[in-house]
Each structure stands twice: as structure tokens, then as C-alpha cells.
Amino acid sequence: MDKLITDEIRSWIGRSDEPIHLVVSRRDIIKYSLATEQLNPKYLKGDEAPPMFLSGADRALTEIADLGPDGLRQDSLLPDLPLKRVMAGGVKQRHLRPIVPGDALLITRSITDIYEK
Predict the structure, then answer these.
(1) Where are the beta strands (DSSP E) in the chain?
(2) Residue 1 binned pLDDT confidence (cut-offs 50, 70, 90)
(3) Which residues does residue 20 pair with via DSSP β-bridges, in sequence order?
């Protein structure tokens, strides 16, 4: 039996944030590619988004004053856990085709499980 995961925390399983609508721009792709040192020309030209492009696309823009002491913002889809730091357990993304400039995406974040490591 888990020691830190209470029934209250488990009640968060199945919760979702409001869907996020995102229109991908060539500039977004280029900025991400440069920041993550993606050297493939199709990424550097912004013709196609590299893998993991969506890993931060759903993050809200946050002012420094709104960040916690650890530099992270309070995530609306994270229960109050009795820990100083939390480890992301995994992400599942479904891509039907490559992401290109002009794509209108619908991003939905959901908690599918919570467990102690």
C-alpha cells in the first residue's frame, strides 16, 4: 500500500484541464528548434515541428512573481502532495501526422494515474 498517496489525492485521477486551442506558427517551431538544438533543416526552417514540440506548448505564460520558490508555477492539474518535489510520471501524446505551421491543435491534459515511486 502506498504511504503518501491518500484517497483525497487518488480522487484526482480522471480530472482534466480545460482543452487548450493552439495555432502553431513557423516562428514557434523555429524558436523551439533553436532552443533544443534540433539541427534538421526542416525543423530549423520551421517546416515541421520536431518531436517533443508539444511538451511545453500547453504551458501557460507565467510571470516570475507567480512562480514558487523552486521556479515552478502551481499546476492546476496537480493535487497538493506531501512532498517537496514531484516527478512527472509520464506523458502520452497522440500525433496523427507531423505538426506544421498553421495547424490548429486541441490539447487536453488529464490525470490517468497517481502512484508513489
Answers:
(1) 20-23, 104-107
(2) very low
(3) 107
